[in-house]
Design a protein that fits this description.
By secondary structure, the protein is α/β, with parallel strands linked by helices. The chain has helices at 34-42, 51-60, 73-76, 83-92, 109-119, 131-134, 144-153, 187-192, 208-217, 235-239, 259-267, 273-289, and strands at 14-19, 63-68, 97-102, 126-129, 156-160, 198-201, 221-224, 248-249.
Length: 291
Amino acid sequence: MDNHQYLDRESLVAIDMHVRPWDTESLGIMGGGRAGAMAGYFGSFPDPVSLDELADQYRTRLMMAVLQTSDDETTSGLPPQSNDHIAAAVKRNPDVFLAFGGVDPWKGKLALDEAVRCGTELGMRGLCFNAARQHFDPSDARFRPLWEKASELGLICLFHTGMVGMGAGQPGGMGIKLRYANPLLLDDVAADFPELTIISAHPGWPWTSEQLAMLRHKANVYMDLSGVAPRHWPPEIMQQVKLVQDKLLFGTDWPVLTPERWLEEFATYGVSDDIRAKILLGNARRVLVSR
């Protein structure tokens, strides 16, 4: 950090709740044909960007970034992204980075131990799960110990939900199982663990109505608006934006989307300044600070 100007939190304009680590060390999880599939679906495969360079990009934007780490080793055979590596980047750039640790729920006690390590030794703010890639139902009783531990530690749990771009158009969808991406699978977890903050990541098409119902029904459930360009959002989101204005979180899924594109397209909806401020910053501050 000696060579960087610290980001002044008073000048902060947004917190991007969903940013992918995209440096060379973190891209091992994109093996097994995933890189080519991503390029086919999104139109390109971005070049690696070091985490320190990424921090500088977000400083320039006057934004913080929450790095979302991933581990689906049991189902994919691919190496997990290193929670230690991401935590070290946060330590170097504490003014701009926060992180959620990747945990493979099928690893049993190892998963529990890693969740504890993420929340204590590594100082992470939450845990990140991709149930469609990890092939697990979050409401299955076998995974209750994870939610109990996360709730006990005050860790937010983020789940990728809705249509999965990875594997789309590929034979068998590269083994990714969409039924596990249904956000309603989180409803039991939210009901049984009311002190656990849950983020349903992405506009969860084709289950957007169910996702919005959960936001309105469960005080501890939020949605991040990442991974889908705002002009492609299901119309229900903006139809209900006033009703769920306290539950929506700005997120891009960078490098899939840049903050610049997200903000430009979001501006076309003509959302009021107070709701816009909540989505970009206020809601995230409340969620993150309360942990």
